[in-house]
Amino acid sequence: MNPQSVFCPNLACAARGKQGQDNISVHSRKEKRYRCAVCQQTFSATKDTLFYRLRTDSVQVMLVIRCWPMGVRRKRSCRRLAMMSGR
Ligand SMILES: [Zn+2]
Q1: Quick one: pLDDT at residue 9?
Q2: Which residue range(s) make up the domain with 24?
Q3: Where residue 87 falls among pLDDT bands split at 50, 70, 90?
């Protein structure tokens, strides 16, 4: 288990999504749980895949925001790109 490779999944946490900030420590190796020092929450190591999905979603949101001021034609290809990067 490597606390540097995970980040806090708590939506209300200020450190959410931030990797390698030293806020995550191993809570229980036996139960494979980590603990966040910022929000004091523990979470399962197996949740990792879910975080990555959340991360992809935020990338897509960013892409859509970036596409917004563009013209229609570019916006369309931009959205296609956003879709390809995700689901
Ligand atoms: Zn947290």
Answers
A1: 87
A2: 3-47
A3: very low
41 and 64 both lie in a single domain: no
Same domain, 34 and 55: no
Instruction: Determine the pLDDT at residue 57.
Output: 64
The three-state DSSP-derived secondary structure of 18-84 is CCCCCCEEEEECCCCEEEECCCCCEEEHHHHHHHHHHHHHHHHHHHHHHHCCCCHHHHHHHHHHHHH
Considering the entire predicted model, what is its pTM?
Answer: 0.53
Which residues have a Cβ under 8 Å from the Cβ of 43 and sit 6 or more positions away? Answer: 8, 9, 10, 33, 34, 35, 36
Report residues near ion ligand 1: CB below 5 Å: 8, 10, 13, 15, 36, 38-39
Question: How many A from CA of 20 to the centre of ligand 1?
Answer: 13
